[in-house]
Protein backbone atom coordinates (compact mmCIF):
# COMPACT_ATOMS: atom_id res chain seq x y z
CA UNK A 1 0.00 0.00 0.00
CA UNK A 2 2.16 2.84 -1.34
CA UNK A 3 2.46 5.09 -4.35
CA UNK A 4 3.98 3.64 -7.50
CA UNK A 5 7.08 5.87 -7.41
CA UNK A 6 7.84 5.09 -3.76
CA UNK A 7 7.34 1.35 -4.23
CA UNK A 8 9.58 1.24 -7.31
CA UNK A 9 12.31 3.07 -5.39
CA UNK A 10 12.30 0.42 -2.63
CA UNK A 11 11.99 -2.79 -4.69
CA UNK A 12 15.01 -5.07 -5.32
CA UNK A 13 16.36 -5.54 -8.83
CA UNK A 14 15.11 -9.13 -9.16
CA UNK A 15 11.47 -8.13 -8.54
CA UNK A 16 9.19 -6.67 -11.21
CA UNK A 17 6.00 -4.63 -11.04
CA UNK A 18 3.13 -7.06 -11.67
CA UNK A 19 0.10 -4.73 -11.43
CA UNK A 20 -0.70 -1.08 -10.80
CA UNK A 21 -4.25 -1.42 -9.47
CA UNK A 22 -4.63 2.00 -7.85
CA UNK A 23 -2.95 5.11 -6.57
CA UNK A 24 -1.89 3.29 -3.36
CA UNK A 25 -2.18 -0.36 -4.45
CA UNK A 26 0.69 -2.03 -6.29
CA UNK A 27 1.54 -5.72 -6.83
CA UNK A 28 5.08 -7.06 -7.32
CA UNK A 29 6.23 -10.47 -8.55
CA UNK A 30 9.48 -12.40 -8.24
CA UNK A 31 11.33 -15.14 -6.32
CA UNK A 32 9.98 -16.01 -2.86
CA UNK A 33 13.14 -15.01 -0.87
CA UNK A 34 13.28 -11.65 -2.61
CA UNK A 35 9.57 -11.06 -1.97
CA UNK A 36 10.07 -11.82 1.74
CA UNK A 37 13.00 -9.39 2.02
CA UNK A 38 10.99 -6.76 0.17
CA UNK A 39 8.12 -7.19 2.64
CA UNK A 40 10.52 -6.66 5.56
CA UNK A 41 11.89 -3.47 3.98
CA UNK A 42 8.35 -2.16 3.48
CA UNK A 43 7.50 -2.89 7.10
CA UNK A 44 10.50 -0.86 8.25
CA UNK A 45 9.18 2.05 6.20
CA UNK A 46 5.73 1.73 7.80
CA UNK A 47 4.09 0.41 4.61
CA UNK A 48 1.58 -2.41 4.96
CA UNK A 49 1.84 -5.35 2.58
CA UNK A 50 0.39 -8.84 2.15
CA UNK A 51 1.81 -11.84 0.35
CA UNK A 52 -0.39 -13.30 -2.39
CA UNK A 53 -0.36 -17.05 -2.80
CA UNK A 54 0.55 -17.92 -6.41
CA UNK A 55 2.20 -20.95 -7.98
CA UNK A 56 3.68 -18.98 -10.88
CA UNK A 57 5.48 -15.65 -10.92
CA UNK A 58 3.34 -14.05 -13.62
CA UNK A 59 4.20 -10.57 -14.91
CA UNK A 60 7.90 -10.97 -14.02
CA UNK A 61 11.14 -11.92 -15.76
CA UNK A 62 10.61 -15.52 -14.62
CA UNK A 63 7.95 -16.14 -17.36
CA UNK A 64 9.82 -14.64 -20.30
CA UNK A 65 10.66 -18.08 -21.66
CA UNK A 66 7.02 -18.90 -22.40
CA UNK A 67 6.26 -15.69 -24.31
CA UNK A 68 7.90 -16.81 -27.54
CA UNK A 69 6.22 -20.23 -27.38
CA UNK A 70 2.87 -18.55 -26.80
CA UNK A 71 3.41 -16.21 -29.75
CA UNK A 72 4.02 -19.13 -32.11
CA UNK A 73 0.83 -20.81 -30.95
CA UNK A 74 -1.18 -17.60 -31.45
CA UNK A 75 0.04 -17.26 -35.03
CA UNK A 76 -2.08 -20.30 -35.88
CA UNK A 77 -5.26 -18.58 -34.61
CA UNK A 78 -7.55 -16.62 -36.98
CA UNK A 79 -8.54 -13.34 -35.33
CA UNK A 80 -11.94 -11.83 -36.11
CA UNK A 81 -12.78 -8.17 -36.38
CA UNK A 82 -13.70 -6.38 -33.16
CA UNK A 83 -17.37 -5.57 -32.70
CA UNK A 84 -17.23 -3.80 -29.32
CA UNK A 85 -14.54 -1.42 -28.05
CA UNK A 86 -11.98 -2.84 -25.61
CA UNK A 87 -9.69 -1.09 -23.17
CA UNK A 88 -6.31 -2.78 -22.90
CA UNK A 89 -4.70 -3.28 -19.47
CA UNK A 90 -1.30 -3.53 -21.17
CA UNK A 91 -1.08 0.23 -21.81
CA UNK A 92 -4.42 1.46 -20.34
CA UNK A 93 -5.88 2.87 -23.61
CA UNK A 94 -8.42 1.67 -26.17
CA UNK A 95 -7.30 -1.41 -28.06
CA UNK A 96 -6.62 -0.74 -31.74
CA UNK A 97 -7.67 -3.04 -34.57
CA UNK A 98 -4.06 -3.88 -35.39
CA UNK A 99 -3.25 -4.80 -31.80
CA UNK A 100 -6.32 -7.02 -31.58
CA UNK A 101 -4.95 -9.21 -34.42
CA UNK A 102 -1.27 -9.13 -33.34
CA UNK A 103 -0.07 -12.41 -31.75
CA UNK A 104 2.92 -10.65 -30.17
CA UNK A 105 0.57 -8.30 -28.30
CA UNK A 106 -1.38 -11.16 -26.77
CA UNK A 107 1.76 -13.14 -25.88
CA UNK A 108 3.01 -10.24 -23.73
CA UNK A 109 -0.02 -10.29 -21.43
CA UNK A 110 1.66 -12.79 -19.10
CA UNK A 111 4.88 -10.72 -18.89
CA UNK A 112 4.09 -6.99 -18.79
CA UNK A 113 2.44 -5.29 -15.76
CA UNK A 114 -1.34 -4.96 -15.54
CA UNK A 115 -2.23 -1.23 -15.87
CA UNK A 116 -5.65 -1.54 -14.26
CA UNK A 117 -5.67 2.00 -12.83
CA UNK A 118 -4.84 3.52 -16.20
CA UNK A 119 -7.60 1.49 -17.87
CA UNK A 120 -10.13 2.73 -15.30
CA UNK A 121 -9.08 6.31 -15.90
CA UNK A 122 -9.62 5.83 -19.63
CA UNK A 123 -13.10 4.43 -18.98
CA UNK A 124 -13.97 7.22 -16.55
CA UNK A 125 -12.99 9.85 -19.14
CA UNK A 126 -15.80 8.60 -21.39
CA UNK A 127 -18.40 10.04 -18.98
CA UNK A 128 -20.81 8.51 -16.50
CA UNK A 129 -20.29 4.78 -16.87
CA UNK A 130 -21.56 1.59 -15.25
CA UNK A 131 -19.16 -1.28 -14.65
CA UNK A 132 -20.52 -4.79 -14.09
CA UNK A 133 -18.04 -7.40 -12.89
CA UNK A 134 -18.47 -10.80 -14.57
CA UNK A 135 -16.36 -13.05 -12.37
CA UNK A 136 -15.91 -14.43 -8.86
CA UNK A 137 -15.78 -12.24 -5.77
CA UNK A 138 -15.59 -8.43 -5.81
CA UNK A 139 -11.89 -7.77 -6.43
CA UNK A 140 -12.27 -5.69 -9.59
CA UNK A 141 -15.41 -3.99 -8.26
CA UNK A 142 -13.67 -2.81 -5.07
CA UNK A 143 -10.68 -1.53 -7.04
CA UNK A 144 -12.94 0.32 -9.49
CA UNK A 145 -14.95 2.05 -6.73
CA UNK A 146 -11.79 3.75 -5.49
CA UNK A 147 -10.90 5.22 -8.88
CA UNK A 148 -14.28 6.10 -10.40
CA UNK A 149 -16.03 9.43 -9.89
CA UNK A 150 -19.15 9.71 -7.77
CA UNK A 151 -21.35 9.76 -10.89
CA UNK A 152 -20.06 6.35 -12.05
CA UNK A 153 -21.04 3.02 -10.57
CA UNK A 154 -19.47 -0.43 -10.22
CA UNK A 155 -21.60 -3.43 -9.26
CA UNK A 156 -21.08 -7.14 -8.78
CA UNK A 157 -22.63 -10.13 -7.02
CA UNK A 158 -21.51 -10.91 -3.47
CA UNK A 159 -21.07 -14.42 -2.13
CA UNK A 160 -20.52 -17.91 -3.43
CA UNK A 161 -23.74 -18.43 -5.38
CA UNK A 162 -23.91 -20.74 -8.34
CA UNK A 163 -23.18 -19.32 -11.76
CA UNK A 164 -26.84 -19.01 -12.79
CA UNK A 165 -27.82 -17.27 -9.54
CA UNK A 166 -24.81 -14.97 -9.87
CA UNK A 167 -25.83 -14.00 -13.39
CA UNK A 168 -29.51 -13.46 -12.51
CA UNK A 169 -28.62 -11.24 -9.55
CA UNK A 170 -26.40 -9.12 -11.76
CA UNK A 171 -29.11 -8.86 -14.45
CA UNK A 172 -31.62 -7.79 -11.79
CA UNK A 173 -29.32 -4.97 -10.69
CA UNK A 174 -28.88 -3.83 -14.27
CA UNK A 175 -32.66 -3.91 -14.81
CA UNK A 176 -33.24 -1.78 -11.68
CA UNK A 177 -30.79 0.78 -13.08
CA UNK A 178 -32.64 0.81 -16.41
CA UNK A 179 -29.76 -0.59 -18.47
CA UNK A 180 -31.54 -3.64 -19.90
CA UNK A 181 -35.16 -4.57 -20.64
CA UNK A 182 -36.82 -7.39 -18.75
CA UNK A 183 -38.40 -8.74 -21.94
CA UNK A 184 -34.97 -9.62 -23.29
CA UNK A 185 -34.48 -12.15 -20.50
CA UNK A 186 -37.92 -13.74 -20.51
CA UNK A 187 -37.28 -15.68 -23.73
CA UNK A 188 -34.88 -18.03 -21.95
CA UNK A 189 -37.13 -18.87 -18.99
CA UNK A 190 -40.57 -20.42 -18.65
CA UNK A 191 -43.14 -18.83 -16.38
CA UNK A 192 -45.09 -20.90 -13.87
CA UNK A 193 -48.22 -19.68 -12.10
CA UNK A 194 -48.35 -20.71 -8.44
CA UNK A 195 -51.74 -20.77 -6.65
CA UNK A 196 -52.01 -18.50 -3.63
CA UNK A 197 -53.88 -19.06 -0.39
CA UNK A 198 -57.35 -17.54 0.04
CA UNK A 199 -57.01 -16.56 3.69
CA UNK A 200 -55.06 -13.90 5.53
CA UNK A 201 -51.91 -15.60 6.76
CA UNK A 202 -49.78 -12.61 7.73
CA UNK A 203 -51.63 -9.68 9.17
CA UNK A 204 -49.45 -6.63 9.68
CA UNK A 205 -50.31 -3.14 10.91
CA UNK A 206 -49.45 -0.27 8.58
CA UNK A 207 -49.81 2.63 10.99
CA UNK A 208 -47.10 5.27 10.98
CA UNK A 209 -45.16 5.05 14.21
CA UNK A 210 -45.04 8.12 16.40
CA UNK A 211 -41.90 10.19 16.13
CA UNK A 212 -39.42 9.37 18.82
CA UNK A 213 -37.94 12.30 20.68
CA UNK A 214 -34.60 12.17 22.39
CA UNK A 215 -34.78 12.74 26.14
CA UNK A 216 -33.28 15.94 27.43
CA UNK A 217 -30.02 15.18 29.13
CA UNK A 218 -29.99 16.38 32.75
CA UNK A 219 -27.47 18.94 33.83
CA UNK A 220 -24.19 17.37 34.75
CA UNK A 221 -24.54 14.27 32.52
CA UNK A 222 -21.09 13.21 31.18
CA UNK A 223 -20.33 14.06 27.59
CA UNK A 224 -20.44 11.02 25.33
CA UNK A 225 -17.06 10.45 23.72
CA UNK A 226 -18.26 8.04 21.03
CA UNK A 227 -18.64 10.85 18.51
CA UNK A 228 -15.04 11.93 19.04
CA UNK A 229 -13.87 8.32 18.67
CA UNK A 230 -15.83 8.01 15.41
CA UNK A 231 -14.14 11.15 14.06
CA UNK A 232 -10.71 9.74 14.95
CA UNK A 233 -11.51 6.42 13.26
CA UNK A 234 -12.77 8.19 10.12
CA UNK A 235 -9.50 10.12 10.00
CA UNK A 236 -7.51 6.87 10.25
CA UNK A 237 -9.60 5.27 7.49
CA UNK A 238 -9.12 8.29 5.23
CA UNK A 239 -5.39 8.30 5.93
CA UNK A 240 -5.07 4.58 5.13
CA UNK A 241 -7.33 4.40 2.07
CA UNK A 242 -7.09 7.91 0.66
CA UNK A 243 -10.90 8.02 0.40
CA UNK A 244 -13.19 10.63 1.97
CA UNK A 245 -15.35 8.93 4.64
CA UNK A 246 -18.48 10.89 5.63
CA UNK A 247 -20.67 10.54 8.71
CA UNK A 248 -23.35 8.74 6.70
CA UNK A 249 -20.84 5.94 6.05
CA UNK A 250 -20.31 5.14 9.75
CA UNK A 251 -22.57 2.08 9.59
CA UNK A 252 -21.52 0.96 6.10
CA UNK A 253 -19.56 -2.27 5.77
CA UNK A 254 -15.92 -1.78 4.77
CA UNK A 255 -16.34 -4.04 1.73
CA UNK A 256 -19.17 -1.82 0.49
CA UNK A 257 -16.79 1.14 0.78
CA UNK A 258 -14.34 -0.68 -1.51
CA UNK A 259 -11.79 -1.49 1.21
CA UNK A 260 -9.94 -4.80 0.98
CA UNK A 261 -8.15 -7.10 3.42
CA UNK A 262 -4.85 -5.28 3.01
CA UNK A 263 -6.50 -2.10 4.26
CA UNK A 264 -7.89 -3.96 7.28
CA UNK A 265 -4.39 -5.18 8.17
CA UNK A 266 -3.05 -1.62 8.13
CA UNK A 267 -6.08 -0.28 10.01
CA UNK A 268 -5.52 -2.84 12.77
CA UNK A 269 -1.99 -1.52 13.32
CA UNK A 270 -3.12 2.12 13.32
CA UNK A 271 -5.95 1.48 15.81
CA UNK A 272 -3.52 -0.21 18.16
CA UNK A 273 -1.09 2.73 17.95
CA UNK A 274 -3.85 5.34 18.35
CA UNK A 275 -6.04 3.85 21.10
CA UNK A 276 -3.63 1.29 22.68
CA UNK A 277 -6.27 -1.44 22.19
CA UNK A 278 -5.66 -4.71 20.38
CA UNK A 279 -8.10 -5.27 17.49
CA UNK A 280 -7.29 -8.28 15.32
CA UNK A 281 -7.78 -8.66 11.59
CA UNK A 282 -10.45 -11.30 12.23
CA UNK A 283 -12.49 -8.85 14.32
CA UNK A 284 -12.30 -6.18 11.60
CA UNK A 285 -13.45 -8.65 8.96
CA UNK A 286 -16.36 -10.00 11.02
CA UNK A 287 -18.08 -8.19 13.91
CA UNK A 288 -16.13 -4.88 13.79
CA UNK A 289 -16.65 -4.19 10.08
CA UNK A 290 -17.75 -0.53 10.22
CA UNK A 291 -16.75 2.75 11.83
CA UNK A 292 -19.78 2.62 14.17
CA UNK A 293 -19.03 -0.88 15.48
CA UNK A 294 -15.33 -0.09 16.05
CA UNK A 295 -16.20 3.11 17.93
CA UNK A 296 -18.60 1.26 20.24
CA UNK A 297 -16.01 -1.45 20.92
CA UNK A 298 -13.25 1.07 21.72
CA UNK A 299 -15.57 3.11 23.95
CA UNK A 300 -16.38 -0.01 25.98
CA UNK A 301 -12.69 -0.80 26.44
CA UNK A 302 -11.46 2.69 27.37
CA UNK A 303 -11.52 3.63 31.08
CA UNK A 304 -14.12 6.07 32.31
CA UNK A 305 -13.06 9.71 32.16
CA UNK A 306 -13.08 11.17 35.71
CA UNK A 307 -13.36 14.68 34.34
CA UNK A 308 -16.64 13.82 32.66
CA UNK A 309 -18.28 12.37 35.78
CA UNK A 310 -21.62 14.00 36.62
CA UNK A 311 -21.79 16.37 39.51
CA UNK A 312 -23.47 14.96 42.58
CA UNK A 313 -26.89 16.53 43.21
CA UNK A 314 -27.10 18.82 46.14
CA UNK A 315 -28.96 17.34 49.08
CA UNK A 316 -30.09 19.37 52.03
CA UNK A 317 -28.13 18.34 55.08
CA UNK A 318 -29.81 16.59 57.94
CA UNK A 319 -29.84 18.73 61.07
CA UNK A 320 -29.19 15.68 63.23
CA UNK A 321 -26.74 13.68 61.11
CA UNK A 322 -23.64 13.84 63.27
CA UNK A 323 -23.34 12.85 66.85
CA UNK A 324 -20.48 13.76 69.12
CA UNK A 325 -19.89 11.88 72.31
CA UNK A 326 -18.04 13.61 75.10
CA UNK A 327 -16.90 11.74 78.15
CA UNK A 328 -15.42 13.19 81.28
CA UNK A 329 -13.45 11.23 83.83
CA UNK A 330 -13.55 11.55 87.56
CA UNK A 331 -10.18 13.28 87.75
CA UNK A 332 -11.05 15.97 85.19
CA UNK A 333 -14.19 17.33 86.86
CA UNK A 334 -15.30 17.59 90.42
CA UNK A 335 -18.97 17.41 89.50
CA UNK A 336 -20.71 14.04 89.11
CA UNK A 337 -19.97 12.25 85.79
CA UNK A 338 -22.22 13.19 82.90
CA UNK A 339 -22.66 11.83 79.36
CA UNK A 340 -23.49 14.62 76.94
CA UNK A 341 -25.16 13.87 73.56
CA UNK A 342 -25.01 16.88 71.27
CA UNK A 343 -26.49 17.18 67.75
CA UNK A 344 -24.60 18.98 64.98
CA UNK A 345 -25.07 19.49 61.23
CA UNK A 346 -23.35 17.20 58.69
CA UNK A 347 -24.13 16.70 54.99
CA UNK A 348 -25.84 13.42 54.13
CA UNK A 349 -23.18 11.42 52.28
CA UNK A 350 -23.68 7.77 53.25
CA UNK A 351 -26.55 5.56 54.22
CA UNK A 352 -28.36 7.01 57.19
CA UNK A 353 -29.68 4.88 60.03
CA UNK A 354 -32.30 6.19 62.46
CA UNK A 355 -31.17 5.35 65.97
CA UNK A 356 -33.82 5.30 68.69
CA UNK A 357 -33.58 7.87 71.41
CA UNK A 358 -32.37 6.30 74.67
CA UNK A 359 -35.13 5.47 77.08
CA UNK A 360 -35.59 8.28 79.58
CA UNK A 361 -34.90 6.65 82.96
CA UNK A 362 -34.58 8.37 86.28
CA UNK A 363 -31.29 10.21 86.58
CA UNK A 364 -28.64 8.25 88.45
CA UNK A 365 -30.47 4.93 88.15
CA UNK A 366 -28.81 1.73 86.96
CA UNK A 367 -31.12 1.63 83.91
CA UNK A 368 -29.91 5.07 82.80
CA UNK A 369 -26.26 4.02 82.99
CA UNK A 370 -26.77 0.82 80.90
CA UNK A 371 -29.01 2.66 78.41
CA UNK A 372 -26.32 5.26 77.70
CA UNK A 373 -23.58 2.63 77.38
CA UNK A 374 -25.64 0.57 74.89
CA UNK A 375 -26.33 3.73 72.90
CA UNK A 376 -22.60 4.47 72.64
CA UNK A 377 -21.85 0.91 71.48
CA UNK A 378 -24.51 1.16 68.75
CA UNK A 379 -23.03 4.44 67.56
CA UNK A 380 -19.52 2.98 67.33
CA UNK A 381 -20.72 -0.08 65.37
CA UNK A 382 -22.57 2.15 62.91
CA UNK A 383 -19.53 4.41 62.40
CA UNK A 384 -17.30 1.37 61.81
CA UNK A 385 -19.72 0.23 59.10
CA UNK A 386 -19.37 3.56 57.25
CA UNK A 387 -22.90 4.71 58.05
CA UNK A 388 -24.04 8.01 59.45
CA UNK A 389 -26.43 8.24 62.34
CA UNK A 390 -29.61 10.16 62.86
CA UNK A 391 -31.31 10.40 66.23
CA UNK A 392 -34.86 11.25 66.90
CA UNK A 393 -35.07 15.04 67.20
CA UNK A 394 -34.93 16.54 70.63
CA UNK A 395 -35.50 20.08 71.73
CA UNK A 396 -32.11 20.54 73.36
CA UNK A 397 -29.01 18.63 74.38
CA UNK A 398 -29.54 16.65 77.49
CA UNK A 399 -27.31 16.36 80.54
CA UNK A 400 -27.99 13.13 82.35
CA UNK A 401 -26.07 13.10 85.65
CA UNK A 402 -24.68 9.81 86.77
CA UNK A 403 -24.83 8.70 90.34
CA UNK A 404 -21.66 8.59 92.36
CA UNK A 405 -20.23 5.14 91.87
CA UNK A 406 -18.52 3.55 94.81
CA UNK A 407 -16.12 1.96 92.29
CA UNK A 408 -15.19 4.84 89.90
CA UNK A 409 -12.33 2.97 88.24
CA UNK A 410 -14.64 0.34 86.77
CA UNK A 411 -17.12 2.93 85.49
CA UNK A 412 -14.38 5.03 83.87
CA UNK A 413 -12.95 2.02 82.05
CA UNK A 414 -16.25 1.00 80.48
CA UNK A 415 -17.14 4.12 78.46
CA UNK A 416 -13.64 5.19 77.26
CA UNK A 417 -13.00 1.65 75.96
CA UNK A 418 -15.99 1.83 73.60
CA UNK A 419 -15.16 5.37 72.53
CA UNK A 420 -11.51 4.58 71.69
CA UNK A 421 -12.39 1.36 69.82
CA UNK A 422 -12.61 2.96 66.34
CA UNK A 423 -9.14 4.51 66.63
CA UNK A 424 -7.63 1.17 67.53
CA UNK A 425 -9.31 -0.54 64.58
CA UNK A 426 -8.68 2.26 62.10
CA UNK A 427 -4.99 2.46 62.95
CA UNK A 428 -4.46 -1.30 62.83
CA UNK A 429 -2.24 -2.43 60.00
CA UNK A 430 -2.15 -5.91 58.58
CA UNK A 431 0.82 -7.89 59.73
CA UNK A 432 3.45 -8.87 57.17
CA UNK A 433 3.06 -12.47 58.24
CA UNK A 434 -0.72 -12.41 57.80
CA UNK A 435 -1.47 -14.73 54.82
CA UNK A 436 -4.80 -13.01 54.25
CA UNK A 437 -3.13 -9.66 53.47
CA UNK A 438 -4.32 -8.64 50.02
CA UNK A 439 -1.89 -7.66 47.27
CA UNK A 440 -2.84 -4.80 44.96
CA UNK A 441 -2.42 -5.30 41.24
CA UNK A 442 -0.87 -8.15 39.23
CA UNK A 443 1.76 -8.98 41.84
CA UNK A 444 2.85 -12.33 43.19
CA UNK A 445 1.32 -13.14 46.56
CA UNK A 446 4.22 -13.99 48.84
CA UNK A 447 3.41 -15.90 51.98
CA UNK A 448 6.00 -15.99 54.76
CA UNK A 449 4.29 -18.90 56.48
CA UNK A 450 6.31 -22.10 56.45
CA UNK A 451 4.44 -24.25 53.96
CA UNK A 452 7.21 -26.55 52.70
CA UNK A 453 6.24 -30.01 51.56
CA UNK A 454 6.97 -32.89 53.78
CA UNK A 455 9.06 -35.90 52.67
CA UNK A 456 5.96 -37.95 51.79
CA UNK A 457 4.36 -35.02 49.91
CA UNK A 458 7.57 -34.31 47.98
CA UNK A 459 7.90 -37.98 47.02
CA UNK A 460 4.28 -38.08 45.80
CA UNK A 461 4.72 -34.88 43.73
CA UNK A 462 7.96 -36.13 42.11
CA UNK A 463 6.27 -39.41 41.24
CA UNK A 464 3.34 -37.61 39.61
CA UNK A 465 5.62 -35.33 37.56
CA UNK A 466 7.69 -38.25 36.32
CA UNK A 467 4.62 -40.26 35.31
CA UNK A 468 2.97 -37.26 33.58
CA UNK A 469 6.11 -36.38 31.58
CA UNK A 470 6.43 -40.00 30.49
CA UNK A 471 2.78 -40.08 29.43
CA UNK A 472 2.97 -36.86 27.36
CA UNK A 473 6.34 -37.57 25.75
CA UNK A 474 4.99 -38.08 22.21
CA UNK A 475 2.66 -35.06 22.46
CA UNK A 476 5.55 -32.78 23.39
CA UNK A 477 7.67 -34.17 20.56
CA UNK A 478 4.88 -33.49 18.06
CA UNK A 479 4.48 -29.94 19.38
CA UNK A 480 8.21 -29.31 18.99
CA UNK A 481 8.18 -30.66 15.43
CA UNK A 482 5.27 -28.37 14.43
CA UNK A 483 6.55 -25.30 16.29
CA UNK A 484 7.37 -23.43 13.07
CA UNK A 485 3.70 -23.61 12.05
CA UNK A 486 2.16 -23.10 15.50
CA UNK A 487 4.33 -20.02 16.13
CA UNK A 488 3.20 -18.31 12.91
CA UNK A 489 2.47 -14.64 13.84
CA UNK A 490 -0.50 -14.63 11.45
CA UNK A 491 -2.27 -16.96 13.88
CA UNK A 492 -1.84 -14.36 16.63
CA UNK A 493 -3.18 -11.47 14.54
CA UNK A 494 -6.26 -13.46 13.51
Could you give a short description of this structure?
39% of the residues lie in helices and 10% in strands. The chain has 20 helices and 9 strands.
What topology does this entry show?
Blueprint: H1 4-10, E1 16-22, E2 25-29, H2 32-44, H3 64-74, H4 97-100, H5 103-107, H6 116-124, E3 130-132, H7 139-147, E4 153-155, H8 163-176, H9 183-186, H10 226-241, H11 261-275, H12 281-285, H13 291-301, E5 318-326, E6 338-346, E7 352-355, H14 366-384, E8 388-391, E9 398-401, H15 408-419, H16 421-426, H17 455-471, H18 473-481, H19 483-486, H20 489-492
Parallel strand pairs: 3-4, 7-8
Antiparallel strand pairs: 1-2, 5-6, 6-9
Sum up the overall morphology in one term. extended
| Series of H and E elements | HEEHHHHHEHEHHHHHHEEEHEEHHHHHH
Alpha plus pi helix count: 20
Helix content: 25-40%
Tell me the structural class. mainly alpha
Q: Widest sheet: strand order? A: 5-6-9
- Gyration radius, rounded: 41 Å
Mind summarizing the main beta sheet?
Answer: 3 strands, antiparallel
The separation of the N and C termini measures 20 Å
CATH architecture of the domain at 1-126: 3-Layer(aba) Sandwich
Question: Can you identify the CATH class of the domain at 1-126?
Answer: Alpha Beta
CATH names the topology of the domain at 1-126 as Malonyl-Coenzyme A Acyl Carrier Protein, domain 2
